[in-house]
Amino acid sequence: MIEVENLTKRYGRTTAVDGISFRVQKGEILGFLGPNGAGKTTTMRILTCYLPPTEGTARVAGYDVFQAPLEVKRRVGYIPETPPLYPDMDVDGFLDFCAKIKGVPSASRKAKIDEAVEKTRIGDVRRKLIGQLSKGYRQRVGLAQAILANPDVLILDEPTAGLDPKQIIETRELIKSLGGDHTIVLSTHILPEVSMTCGRVVIINKGKVVAEDTPENLTRRLRGAGALRVDVRGEAASAAAEAVRSVPGVLSVRARAESPEGTTLEVEAEAGRDVRAEIARAVVSRGLDLLALQQVGMSLEEIFLHLTTTDTAHAEAPPPPPPASQEVTA
Amino acid sequence: MTALRNVWAIVEKEWRHYFGSPIAYVALMVWTLLFGIFFYFAFSLFLRQSMMAAQQMEFGGGPKMSLNEWLIRPVMHNMAVVALFLAPMLTMRLFAEEKRQGTIELLATAPITDLQIVVGKFLAAVGLYGLMILAGLLNLALIWHYASTPPEWKPVLTGALALLLFGSCFLALGVFVSTLTRNQIVAGILSFCLFLGVWTLGWADDPSAGPLMRALAYLGVTTHMEDMVKGVVDLKDVVFYLSFIAFGLFLAHESVQSQRWRA
């Protein structure tokens, strides 16, 4: 549905987007993940024909954003970071105007507006001026505007920014429910959002694609220092730790919790080396009971931190704004 | 068909803004108030003059005073000055406000062309301005009601047309200036200065001046009003105004497009 090839956008001397390529299949929800200033918004603006690319091509539903912008615009619903709303219009008036400029035929206009209002649950504020609405409602009016003409593609730039936790959950549910019918690209710097809503993730940093995969695969691929959880019966924590440490390839062992049932060890092993069998053998051969041996996936947060921090370490650039922990937990 | 529908959607939206905010009411009020005041003074002057003329008539001389020439025409000229002041008010927010609010992104990503947006906004301003002219003309209806020999209506019509075309030139330029900034006050002040500049070009209209000055004078928007207010619609004046408007809208369109490239 969306094909982006070698897309580059320069503003004067700064390169906001640097030769990125990715594809989105029909009905897929793609997460666009990256810190602030990574080039997410610029990419989205190119996909919605708001900005022309400096180099490369982007096609939506087979139409080039540069050659056939009107065809692309007809098929794309878009919410920018701050939803574009007229504060002096009421919600109905605004949606009516949007339906008109999006070319919704007058016969079905009312039905389409009703449908969008219902989907985004803004029915109780339809007669209110947009300027008087709360942030959460404004965001939803923005979303209603985007899905109004029933576009094939939805492009959502930080759709949950500035919402309270309840609204965030509602918005995510809504986005998930829209997937399937619509192809969705959503950007965010809030990590849990991606694993909760998206089927695939493109991580972008400093205008470049750093990784692209499903959230699960990314976790697997980036198990650079694979972590294991080893449960051993009994209180022989030090003996168990000793046993595990003796296995070649194990980097560190930490006793995490001791319960009447036994001891839980956290083990870090070398990248790409499967040490599970050896650990099991080492534990058992010392006469200890092995209760569980489990691979612990890195959360996307960790991947994200990993990706961005290692990149800057190499480039010796000023450190990126650390992914704000408050937003991460939001 | 879709093009017309899109333009109309923009016109409708802008009218909603005009009438949903004080702009339309203030503009209409100031315009009709000043129209009334000028009309009153022109009328008093006309009465005094015609009284004097009547006295001279007793001595077998003096011209017969025409209402068109002595009353309606001066009022029309005064209103052109008022248009100079009010036009920036109608156009300054058209693009500046969209840019400030970020709603320009909504328009730019909707399946409508930049030209349709520019033309729609311009026509919305012209529509409100036309309404102002109509409201002002109500004053003149009084003359028809009371005058024993009513004035000719055709020059009144051409005068209104002159006002409309003349003001539309300002509005087209104003739309262009509004695309240049995200601050409506800046857009308003810049437009006013630009309008004033275009206005003063007409002052260079002097038969003894050199060809350059004559050419400049020709560009002055006031120069082309004279005949039309008198009731003579010359094709060259109409073409002048229409091309002036087209030029203003062309600049606005180019400005909107180029900002996308530079952004």
The third-level CATH topology of the largest domain in chain A is: Rossmann fold
Give the strand tally of chain A.
14
Q: Please write the string of helix (H) and strand (E) elements of chain A.
A: EEEHEEHEHHHEHEHEEHEHEEHEHH
Spans of chain A with pLDDT under 50 lasting ≥5 residues?
310-330
The largest pleated sheet of chain A is described as: 6 strands, mixed
Rounded average pLDDT of chain B: 88
Structural class of chain B: mainly alpha
Number of domains of chain A: 2
How are the strands of the biggest sheet of chain A laid out side by side? 6-7-8-3-9-10
H and E order of chain B: HHHHHHHHHHH
N/C terminus separation of chain A: 31 Å
The top level CATH class name of the largest domain in chain A: Alpha Beta
From the 3D coordinates, which CATH architecture of the largest domain in chain A would you assign? 3-Layer(aba) Sandwich
Number of helices of chain A: 12
Major beta sheet of chain B, specifics? none
Strand content of chain A: 25-35%
- Tell me roughly what share of residues is in helical segments of chain A: 25-40%
Summarize model confidence as the mean pLDDT of chain A: 81
Kindly describe this structure.
Chain A has twelve helices and 14 strands. With 330 residues, chain A is of the alpha/beta class. Chain A has a six-stranded mixed β-sheet with strand order 6-7-8-3-9-10, with helices on both faces. In chain A, strands 2-1-4-5 form a four-stranded antiparallel β-sheet, covered by helices on one side. In chain A, strands 12-13-11-14 form a four-stranded antiparallel β-sheet, covered by helices on one side. In chain A, a hairpin with a 2-residue loop joins strand 12 and strand 13. Chain A is elongated. The C terminus of chain A is likely disordered. Chain B has 263 residues and is mostly helical. Chain B has one domain. Chain B contains eleven helices and no strands. In chain B, helix 7 packs across helix 8. Classes of the chains: A alpha/beta (330), B mainly alpha (263). At the A-B interface, helix 2 and helix 3 of A face helix 1 and helix 5 of B.
